[in-house]
């Protein structure tokens, strides 16, 4: 497969997953800001944007974090490369370039999302409910995912799409957790408070995981349980371990198909082995923020290795 | 990107629509029903207006769904625009087609012989049959490949010959396209859509299929693999990228042939070969079906600012490490000034009489022709030698006095830049319009494939001027497309 084709497929998945995350972030932010807090409305939004690397761009364009501007920035703004609109447009453009590597169902899912987005952009903003907008994004992300799973040939292109999904999701989960833990509640005496619980629940809800969490753990929402759920529990579809296992699986399949080992395959295997040995206590001792920062860095390095192995056109 | 498909269908009658002197391909010049169209009469009558509108909407939806939104190469315009599709097919009988087919193949052979000659010994020029200036001073003449003979001596592997008709047996070639004629995706998709919407038509008529075009193209390209290629050649299509107006066509052909669609950045030169960057490392490329112009192929050889080419490609090509289709330099054969001499080429290289006529053409660069042209300007069509897309031309009978005077000055200032042709009475084909069915002028572009064998898929691109009386079929100026049928014997 052409390196560029593989890279386009990989980015289709990453952009779509990112659109999903931006929508979820908008929901987390909006819910949290409905609650009285220690910092006030402004700094919470600011912290959220900071954690996702979107703060400087927002400040430059809009200044104060007013709800309507935040919605614009995270949803519609083409100046924000991570906005829902930017991501969906980029995913669809990547799809258009590799049309021949996609089934018509997959193309339809991408194209429909894009066409509907254009319609949404023309609509009166006051008629758009935030929750409808985020639901809309999640629905289209799920439709694309479903079309890929149901119709695509299980060839190397399928593996690159999945690697894109898993790496992006891994990064996003780590960032969303970090938002909650590090940014929103920096003072130790808030830990375990009602506010603390509310924020954790909001986070779980935004990830579409709070029911699953209660099924799996029950009882009180605590930082340790959540850390276990979102980092170490292979049952959780968003857990880091699930994402890394998925990445490793698809890298293994590529190695098998190509008949050669790759550096990214070795890296993913090593990361997975460490996660399997990891315990929540050790993570908490190290500090959740420090641990998550390390994860984000390692995930980026793995993405870089995938790039070198497959997208540069130079076999290693 | 210089355009080759000028598609100037200006040569036509003075009166709009089918008039007494206009040949209609369904009804002739009167009220007869010509046999190839016999079965279409009932079909039209069986479709009331509502059903027809429904079908039309369905066809448009299908075109949009498959994403075939593209302008015929060189015409410019919005790349996301749909070209109107007319459901009324254009039909040729087996006999008509076999005559056309022989003429087209003959012309394709002569054009390739000419190219080998002018990049070699230049016999036709030595023999005084064509002025050397027209060839060697032509902007499309590539000195870089002089003396090099491409595999099998073929320069132009896909020859698009634009043809108009004025009567039952009168066909004229308007121009040749030897570089990378586009529009074949319309031939393929129009047929797909017609078969989907009107299967009963295809049961009732015996229509030659066109869907083997991609197989024949693949075979053609494989047959010109370079000598250094052992085994099954690796073929790729080189596109300028997804912003190009014909990108859909590039990706469709890649898909149908099962070959990679590459951009310049996907290829690189290492030693004596060209390689594609793949997920499994470099993969050697043997044949490049390029859909970019000569000047962009290789920044080291042609335009240094080309972002879509491959550095060093021409060196590999001249050393026989890769084949480029069409071969660089092929454009010199489809120049409008060289066009006049194609019948000479047929006689000179093949020793045959041309089966297809040229439109009589006056070269304003010649003193006698110039005098005639200036005298008859109100009756003639004047074109720029290098113009395209139906722009930069004068349609005498339709022009105002002031416009004619403007052109008179232009021609006198640079006579070499212009040619003139009489206005032909272009044939019409029934076409669906608001009020029902009405005659509209058409042209035809068949795609002749030249490799080890010369092959012509029975069909082509029929363009239709949708505006009443209009002779310009360019999509940018209100043109549409039709499915083109060739009936089996």
Automatic annotation (TrEMBL), chain A:
<dbReference type="InterPro" id="IPR051680">
    <property type="entry name" value="ATP-dep_Glu-Cys_Ligase-2"/>
</dbReference>
<dbReference type="Pfam" id="PF04168">
    <property type="entry name" value="Alpha-E"/>
</dbReference>
<feature type="domain" description="DUF403">
    <location>
        <begin position="1"/>
        <end position="311"/>
    </location>
</feature>
<protein>
    <submittedName>
        <fullName>Alpha-E domain-containing protein</fullName>
    </submittedName>
</protein>
<dbReference type="InterPro" id="IPR007296">
    <property type="entry name" value="DUF403"/>
</dbReference>
């Amino acid at each position: 497969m052409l390196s560029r084709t593989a890279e386009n497929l990989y980015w289709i998945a990453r952009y779509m997953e990112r659109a999903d995350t931006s929508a979820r972030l908008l929901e987390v932010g909006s819910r949290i800001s409905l609650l009285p807090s220690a910092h006030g409305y402004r700094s919470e939004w600011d912290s959220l944007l900071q954690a996702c690397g979107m703060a400087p761009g927002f400040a430059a364009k809009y200044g104060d974090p007013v709800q309507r501007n935040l919605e614009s920035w995270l949803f519609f703004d083409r100046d924000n490369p991570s906005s829902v609109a930017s991501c969906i447009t980029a995913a669809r453009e990547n799809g258009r370039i590799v049309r021949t590597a996609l089934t018509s169902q997959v193309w339809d899912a991408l194209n429909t999302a894009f066409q509907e987005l254009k319609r949404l952009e023309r609509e009166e903003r006051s008629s758009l409910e935030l929750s409808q907008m985020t639901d809309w994004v999640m629905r289209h992300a799920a439709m694309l995912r479903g079309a890929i799973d149901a119709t695509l040939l299980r060839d190397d292109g399928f593996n690159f799409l999945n690697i894109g999904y898993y790496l992006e999701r891994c990064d996003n989960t780590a960032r969303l957790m970090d938002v909650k833990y590090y940014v929103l509640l920096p003072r130790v005496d808030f830990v375990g408070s009602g506010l603390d619980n509310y924020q954790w629940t909001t986070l779980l809800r935004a990830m579409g995981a709070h029911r699953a969490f209660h099924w799996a753990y029950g009882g009180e929402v605590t930082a340790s349980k959540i850390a276990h759920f979102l980092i170490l529990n292979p049952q959780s579809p968003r857990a880091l371990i699930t994402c890394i296992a998925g990445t490793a699986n698809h890298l293994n399949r590529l190695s098998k198909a190509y008949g050669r080992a790759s550096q990214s395959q070795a890296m993913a295997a090593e990361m997975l082995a460490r996660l399997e040995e990891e315990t929540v206590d050790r993570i908490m001792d190290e500090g959740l923020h420090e641990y998550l920062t390390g994860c984000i860095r390692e995930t980026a390095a793995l993405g870089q290795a995938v790039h070198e192995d497959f997208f540069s056109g130079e076999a290693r | 990107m210089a355009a080759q498909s000028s598609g100037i269908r200006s040569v036509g009658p003075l009166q709009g629509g089918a008039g007494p002197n206009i040949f209609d391909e369904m009804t002739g010049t009167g009220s007869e029903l010509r046999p190839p169209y016999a079965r279409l009469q009932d079909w039209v009558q069986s479709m009331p207006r509502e059903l027809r509108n429904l079908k039309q909407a369905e066809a448009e939806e299908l075109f949009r769904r498959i994403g075939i939104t593209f302008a015929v190469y060189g015409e410019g315009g919005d790349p996301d625009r749909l070209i109107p599709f007319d459901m009324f097919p254009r039909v040729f009988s087996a006999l008509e087609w076999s005559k056309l087919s022989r003429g087209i193949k003959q012309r394709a052979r002569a054009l390739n012989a000419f190219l080998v000659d002018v990049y070699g010994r230049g016999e036709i020029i030595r023999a005084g049959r064509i002025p050397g200036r027209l060839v060697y001073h032509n902007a499309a003449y590539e000195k870089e490949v002089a003396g090099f003979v491409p595999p099998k001596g073929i320069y132009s592997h896909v020859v698009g010959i634009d043809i108009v008709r004025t009567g039952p047996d009168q066909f004229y070639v308007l121009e040749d396209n030897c570089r990378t004629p586009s529009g074949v995706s319309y031939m393929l998709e129009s047929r797909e859509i017609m078969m989907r919407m009107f299967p009963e038509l295809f049961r009732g008529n015996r229509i030659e299929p066109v869907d083997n075009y991609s197989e024949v193209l693949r075979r053609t390209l494989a047959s010109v693999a370079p000598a250094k290629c052992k085994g099954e050649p690796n073929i790729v299509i080189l596109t300028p990228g997804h912003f190009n107006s014909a990108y859909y066509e590039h990706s469709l052909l890649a898909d149908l042939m099962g070959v990679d669609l590459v951009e310049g950045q996907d290829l690189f030169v290492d030693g004596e070969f060209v390689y594609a960057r793949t997920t499994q490392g470099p993969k050697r490329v043997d044949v490049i079906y390029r859909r970019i112009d000569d000047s962009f192929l290789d920044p080291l050889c042609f335009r240094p600012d080309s972002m879509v080419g491959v550095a060093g490609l021409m060196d590999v090509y001249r050393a026989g490490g890769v084949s480029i289709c069409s071969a660089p330099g092929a454009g010199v054969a489809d120049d409008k000034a060289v066009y006049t001499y194609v019948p000479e080429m047929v006689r000179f290289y093949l020793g045959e009489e041309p089966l297809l006529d040229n439109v009589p053409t006056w070269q304003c660069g010649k003193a006698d022709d110039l005098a005639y042209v200036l005298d008859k300007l109100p009756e003639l069509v004047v074109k720029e030698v290098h113009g395209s897309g139906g722009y930069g031309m004068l349609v005498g009978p339709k022009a105002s006095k002031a416009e004619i005077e403007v052109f008179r000055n232009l021609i006198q200032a640079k006579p070499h830049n212009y040619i003139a042709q009489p206005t032909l009475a272009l044939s019409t084909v029934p076409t669906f319009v608001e009020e029902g069915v009405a005659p509209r002028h058409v042209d035809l572009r068949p795609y002749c494939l030249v490799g080890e064998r010369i092959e012509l898929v029975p069909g082509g691109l029929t363009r239709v001027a949708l505006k009443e009386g209009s002779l310009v079929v360019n999509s940018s100026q209100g043109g549409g497309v039709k499915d083109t049928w060739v009936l089996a014997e």
